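We were asked to recover a plausible sequence for a given structure. The inputs and outputs are reproduced exactly as logged, with field labels preserved.

PROBLEM: sequence recovery
POSITIONS: 306
GIVEN STRUCTURE:
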């Protein structure tokens, strides 16, 4: 029997019926992976309507005074028979299957409603995919969420990858401009994971930089990392942007970040992502300092001399 030898792209399977691949001569292991991903896609299609998605919130704190600057909303999928599934296990599949727009719309509105319900409208950050910024109606989606929930636009920050904002895509640029005109803020996420330049960052409509955890993780161990982080902090401040470090887990990292002039941080050292009810109880009990300023106007940490 002649076997198929055509090139096969696993991404194609996510938008095609499973029966299309029944007769394709794939290795058994690959066939299992395809069927597993197709099963995940089928389940994801119902996740929003079946109320299976949940948001957890991770505090972001100032390094100078440890006050709460805001929270980042992180989506989880409470998948039946699987339990709580983290975003890295399903978001890329949702993007490839064309399901991310519905998920992101739900995340934005749910996060806005929750932030508005906390006393003082806690500043909140939400991740937005590149696919969403390529959709012409994204600004309308954000505007509608703000209108329905009553959240002040300046309280919402959308986190976008630097490569996405600097892509030169006309639709992305139009969406970013329209969203900025609403008063919503942008954060450049995972800075340091890709190559960035002062010239490219200068063109982006952002108020906040977030240093990727890959740099933070070795900050107190790798002699080269402090110099890189200092350059990012100085570049951000030169552009008038606040700088937040992601993935902080050790006190030694905090000491280095403070010395380098970083403005704020988030990570397990301060608090894990947690359900809204848990964070709300912490705010009400005073266990978490009430927000004093928004992400983009934090009190600066005086950097130590080089």
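RECOVERED SEQUENCE:
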């Amino acid at each position: 029997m002649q076997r198929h030898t055509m090139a096969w792209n696993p991404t194609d399977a996510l938008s095609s019926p499973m029966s299309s691949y029944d007769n394709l001569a794939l290795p058994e292991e690959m066939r299992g992976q395809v069927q597993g991903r197709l099963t995940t896609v089928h389940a994801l299609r119902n996740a929003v309507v079946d109320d299976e998605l949940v948001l957890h919130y991770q505090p972001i704190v100032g390094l100078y005074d440890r006050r709460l600057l805001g929270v980042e909303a992180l989506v989880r999928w409470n998948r039946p028979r699987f339990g709580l599934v983290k975003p890295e296990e399903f978001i890329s599949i949702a993007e490839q299957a064309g399901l991310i727009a519905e998920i992101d719309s739900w995340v934005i509105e749910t996060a806005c409603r929750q932030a508005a319900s906390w006393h003082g409208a806690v500043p909140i950050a939400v991740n937005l995919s590149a696919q969403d910024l390529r959709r012409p109606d994204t600004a309308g989606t954000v505007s509608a969420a703000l209108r329905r929930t009553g959240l002040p636009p300046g309280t919402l920050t959308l986190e976008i990858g630097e490569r996405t904002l600097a892509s030169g895509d006309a639709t992305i640029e139009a969406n970013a401009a329209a969203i900025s005109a609403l008063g919503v803020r942008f954060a450049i996420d995972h800075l340091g994971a890709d190559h960035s330049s002062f010239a490219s960052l200068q063109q982006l409509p952002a108020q906040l930089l977030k240093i990727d955890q890959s740099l933070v993780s070795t900050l107190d161990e790798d002699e080269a990392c402090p110099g890189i982080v200092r350059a990012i902090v100085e570049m951000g401040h030169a552009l008038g942007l606040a700088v937040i470090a992601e993935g902080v887990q050790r006190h030694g990292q905090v000491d280095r970040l403070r010395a380098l002039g970083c403005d704020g941080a988030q990570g397990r050292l301060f608090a894990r992502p947690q359900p809204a009810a848990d964070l709300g109880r912490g705010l009400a009990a005073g266990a978490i300092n009430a927000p004093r300023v928004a992400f983009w106007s934090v009190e600066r940490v005086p950097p130590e001399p080089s």
